Amino acid sequence: MSLSPSLDGPRTTRAPAPPGTSPRLTAPEDPDEITRIVPRRHPGRVLSAAVALLVLAMAVNSVVRNERFQWGVVGRYFTTPAVLDGLLLTLWLTAAVMVLGFLLGTALAVMRLSANPVLNTISWGYIWIFRATPLLVQLLFWFNIGALYPTLGIGIPFGPEFLTITTVNLFGPALTALIGLTLHEAAYAAEVVRGGILSVDAGQSEAAASLGLSRWRVLRRVIVPQAMRSIVPTAGNMLIGTLKGTSIVSVLAVQDLLFSVQLVYNRTYQIIPLLMVATLWYVIVTTVLSVAQFFVERHYARGAARELPPTPLDRLRAQLTAVRVRVAASRRRGEPGRGSPRGDDGEERST
Question: How far apart are the first and last CA of the chain?
Answer without folding.
Answer: 15
